[in-house]
Amino acid sequence: MSVRLEEHLKNHKGFTSRAKDWAVKYTESYPTRTEALRRERQIKKWKSRKMIEKLIMN
Q1: Is 42 in contact with 48 (CB distance < 8 Å)?
Q2: How far is Cα 21 from Cα 31, in angstroms, rounded to an integer?
Q3: Running DSSP on this structure, what letter comes out for residue 44?
Q4: How many Å apart are CA 40 and CA 34, to the nearest integer?
Q5: pLDDT score at 10
Q6: Rounded distance, CA 10 to CA 3, Å?
Q7: How confident is the model at residue 1 (pLDDT cuts 50, 70, 90)?
Q8: Residues 4-45 pLDDT 10s
Q9: CB atoms within 10 A of CB 33
Q10: Is the pLDDT of residue 54 over 70?
Q11: Which whole-number Å values give the CA distances from 49 to 1, 8, 30, in the listed order?
Q12: 23 closest CA partner among 34, 8, 45
């Protein structure tokens, strides 16, 4: 399990805290945490299942 996913599941009050069966389907690596969080926010802003599925499939 990734560190980021563990953070979401541990003492988290949002959506991810309700479901404990999450699995990592896709990862990207960045040289800094700041860049990685920026990319995560970008993907979350899409709010489109189709776009996220397309990202995972490519």
Answers
A1: no
A2: 28
A3: H
A4: 10
A5: 74
A6: 10
A7: low
A8: 777 767 766 766 667 767 778 889 999 999 999 999 899 989
A9: 9
A10: yes
A11: 22, 20, 23
A12: 8
Token pair of 1, please?
């399990």
Tokens of 27: 């990862």
Tokens for 53, please give them.
């599925």
Give the integer Cα–Cα distance in Å for 17 and 10: 7
pTM above the 0.90 mark?
Answer: no
Which of 35, 32, 44 is CA-nearest to residue 8? 44
Structure tokens, 29 = 């690596």
Token pair listed for 58: 């490519």
